[in-house]
Amino acid sequence: MRLERLTLSGFKSFADATEVRFDAPINGIVGPNGCGKSNVVDALKWVLGERSAKSLRGGSMLDVIFAGAHARSPSDLAKVELVFSNPIVGRDKNNQPQRELPIDTEEVSIGRSLDRDNNSRYTINGAKAKAKEIRELLYGTGMGKGGYAMIEQGQVAAMLQAKPEERRRILEEAAGISGFRDRRQESARSLERSESKLEVFRASLASTERRLKTIRNQAERARQFQVLETERIDLQRHLITETFLRLEAELSEAIQRRREAAANGTVWLAALEQAEVDLNTKKEGETEAWQHRRKSEQAQSKAEAEYAAASEALRAAEERYESATKANDEDQRELQELDRRESELATERNINSQLNDDASTRLEKTRQILDEAVSARTRTRQAATEAERQAIRSEEAVTETQQEAERRRSEAAESEARREGTREQEEAANKRLQSLREETAEIARKLESARESFRSAERAKTLAEENTTVQAATLSSLGEQQAILASNLSEIRAAEARIQSRLDALVELRQSREGLAEGVRKVLERPESHPGLIGVLAELIETDADTASRLELALGEHAQTLVFDTQIAAQQASLRLAGAPGRIKIASLEPQGNQGEPRNRQPIPGVLDGIRLRGPGAWLTTRILRSTHPAADLQTAKQLARMQPQARFLLDDGTVLESDGRLVVGRETSAAGTIVRRAEERQLQEELDALLVRQLQLNENLAGVQAGEQEARQNLENANLKEREAREALSQVQAQIDREEADQRRLRTETESAEQTCTSMAARSRQFTMLAEEARDRAQVAEDRLGTLRAARDEARALLELQRKDDAAAEQAVDDAHEAHREAATEAEAARRTLAATTRELDEAIKRREIWVQRREKRQAEQKYAEESRSTNQDRLNLAETMLKKRRAESDEANLNAEQAVAARQEAENNREVPRAGSIEAEKELQQVEGILARIALEQDHLQTSIRSEEAFQLEDIAASAADFDHTGSDESDRAAREEKLECIRQDIRALGHINLDAIQEEQELDENNERLIEQVSDLESTIVRLTELIERLDTESRTMFGDAFDRIRNHFAGEDGMFRQLFGGGSAQLELVPTESGEIDLLESGIEIRATPPGKRPRVLSQLSGGEKTMTAVALVMAIFRSNPSPVCVLDEVDAALDEANVARFCKTIQNFTDRSQFVVITHRKLTMRSCQRLYGVTMQERGVSKLVGVRVDDIQETKQGDVALIETVPSAPSQAGSSLTTSA
């Protein structure tokens, strides 16, 4: 697996999209200080899941987004993407390919983006992912957070100075158990949550069982109540049925007497009805005459308006015709000018095209010359590079030989020094052994005292835990009550918001007068122009929501009647609105004479029966609908119409049958909903008021529960505090015991070690003497070989100087070819731009001509239309003049007919007065019978009230059971006995006290909940067992894998052929596990200690090593880890900064030995390191604050006085693609 490429966009100083391709084993990144080299490393860490802004050298995570520069605005998004190759490494048992990463694709991309709103997004192969998924994908590769694949500036010293536990994290990643550690932590958290849930469920189970005992008693009383209530209802039904039958008999007798009384007034009613019919006929004739007169006047007005409109249309048509003729002539002249300009531009374009072809030919010739010069420069550069490599190899050989001779002399001196130090150590070891034996006896006495304190602290902790459990159960109960109240309050608030939203919509519709006709709306918008105007009828009446729709259907178009306070105001308004658009109905609230309603021959229910009307328009609505009656269907309505010829009927489906036989189907869309909306608005306001009252009650209850919960929470905190204090006391005592036991084990170990030290010092002294003699012999051999190597080095340097001169000449030839090519390109670009400008101008001229052609055609069509309109309007004027004369004659005739109809209506009103007086006398006689019926009706109402008060009774059921009721043997004594028994049953019910009928259902629910809690407790106990076993299994596997990995890494680092001896050319190092506080080595917890002794020096602590020695030690450790578990990529950020030339050479040689295992990205200022890179990139800031990636030649860098290097020239290899990968072989 290899890192293919890195793409940055808007990340820190990389404002533009930049792609870095890593297609070589060792890739170098160079550039001046502060140009953004380390931002590449930050991008790698960030995309792999780094969450610490400090680790990314920022104050907050938003600092990774490009913050802007002098000529650049800030970016809104930072985005980084890594692409790895994912080769097939084998096949499974099903012969399916297996890849290094568990994703079946040739490449795997990992991306991360962050915007200014702090929205972060991870992706794997473009699909959204979590940071955890990326960590799990890279487990064991060393590239995760805290891994060993990235060594940054300053991290070398931090790695050696870190605590042993922190060093352990690096080896865990190499051992591949970092994933196990995460899984173990997650399992431990799950185990803790499961144990916490188990405690809660056990407390809930105990609470449920206590509640179940109480509810069982309530449920038993509820069942007794149900038996008594059933018996009471049966007796009550029997008594009500007897009363119902008695009232039915009395009602039949009263109805018969009313029929006889009504027969006495039949003659007078017939005479009065005939007079009413005659009067209605005269009124209809009068109404029709006045309507005919009004229509004639309206027709005359329309004819006059039509005549005026025809005259105006004729004049306008003549003006349009003249205007279209002039515009057509102007368009023709413009088209001729456009044709001339188009011809000139076509000629100019042909000339520019020829010039462009000539410039392109010259550009191609200069390009060929440039390619030949570049090829020649490449050949000379390869020769110079080979000579330089030979010189470096010679220099390295001389340096290595000098160092070897020096190292051998140092080894001899070191061996002498160690021999003297061994004698001193032997004497100190004997003194230390005596001191340790005395200290061991003192520790044993302290340990016994600490164990007695531990037993006392453990008893105090048990008492505190029991108190905490009691307080937690109380808090849980109050929390459940608060949750229920909060849920109810939330539901009320949601209902309140829903009702308020609907109320706002209804108020808006009412204020905008939605549904009213245009003419009515205009009158209402200007009430000051119409004195006495009260409003529209639909807004002056109020009714219930369930009857509003039917009332609106019955009123129909009358709902839009404009209502005035007096008859005079209404008449004046009718005169003002005679010419208004549409039909407008007008009425007044002033009572008029002769408004009495005649009685029908047979009583027919009115449409307003059962509808409660309120408001100032109720009387007017009753008057309008006095002749409107309900009917189930059309057939019923026709039958009733024969009994009442002048009536209109409203069917159940909303259809209206008018008195003249017309059917009105559907709804009046112009006024539909006004009355319904007003009724709904009142009903919603009442519901809103009720919800507000309920909300106040719930808020008070919730406040009480919250206060109780606060008190319980305080008690729980106090209990927790005491428990923590007990635990801390116990922990302190336990820690003291652990320290004493650890000291005891330490002293035992140190005593054994001191005894062994005394024995081994003599043997080591003899060994150091032999080593010193051997080192002096090897130093002499190295001095002899050094002379030969220096001669070879001088010869290689002379050859390198000659090759550099040839390379400089080839470079000058390339520069001259570049200059000629740029001049030709400039000339070709100018010719191309001139040709493009001429072509665009010609295209624009053609488009303008097409527009003018279309415009001329449009003008011609307008001219033709104007001529036709002029002829049409002349005919219209002649026809309007003829119609006006006809309408004036019809209006005069209608006025005469209206005056005759008024006289006839007055005569009919005088003839009606005689039968009306006789009808009144008959009505008084009938009222006496109606008094009797009213008494019966009152008793029936009382009976119905009794029935409605019982939910188990329905009036229909009582009426049905009355038919089968047995009166035999029933008298007043039996009724009294039944009433006495009923009262006894009621007393028994009252004796039961408060009855909770819901207790039966709650008992069943609690039984089910209890069983469910028992099952959940059992499941949680099983889960805890499984999690405990999983943690133990993970610990066992982690110990095995870490132990194996530690042994391999220790051998690769400190062994005879280890990386430490290879990098230092000798010396010794140790990699050890540090005992835990218990004094034992634990493969899961023990830290890692590093000991290093460079050649020729005494053993010392890591902090005493020089900067170069620390770097080499850290590199040796990383390379040892790579030998054990190679990471696909290793990033080294200025790791060689503290090394001298000789150690830099060893550092580069070591990296090259690992290119078969890993890929390296090296950020450096050292020229020797750059030469070892197969691919080299430069990071510069040609624009202040914005980093750019360029290809770099090794000769384009120079050393500063401090030994660093600076970029003195950049060669962009792809200027046409900003931010693309720019590479040059070093």
Condensed summary:
Helix content is 67%, strand content 9%. By secondary structure, it is of the alpha/beta class.
Structure, described:
With 1226 residues, the protein is an alpha/beta fold. It has a domain at 518-672: Alpha-Beta Plaits (2-Layer Sandwich), CATH 3.30.70. The chain contains 20 helices and 25 strands. The strands form seven sheets. A six-stranded antiparallel β-sheet has the order 2-1-4-7-8-9. Strands 10-20-21-3-22-23 form a six-stranded mixed β-sheet, covered by helices on one side. Strands 14-15-16-17 form a four-stranded mixed β-sheet, with helices on one face. It starts with a strand and ends in a 19-residue tail after the last strand.
Describe the protein's topology.
Layout lengths: L2 E7 L8 E4 L4 E5 L6 H11 L29 E9 L2 E4 L5 E3 L7 E9 L4 E5 L2 E3 L1 H7 L12 E2 L3 H7 L2 H12 L2 H87 L1 H246 L6 H8 L7 E4 L8 H11 L6 E3 L2 H10 L9 E3 L29 H7 L3 E4 L2 H10 L4 E4 L4 E2 L5 E2 L9 H238 L1 H37 L5 H8 L9 H20 L6 H57 L4 H6 L3 E6 L14 E6 L13 H18 L4 E5 L7 H13 L5 E5 L3 H5 L3 E9 L2 E6 L5 E3 L5 E3 L19
Parallel strand pairs: 3-21, 3-22, 10-20, 12-13, 14-15, 20-21
Antiparallel strand pairs: 1-2, 1-4, 4-7, 5-6, 7-8, 8-9, 11-12, 15-16, 16-17, 18-19, 22-23, 24-25
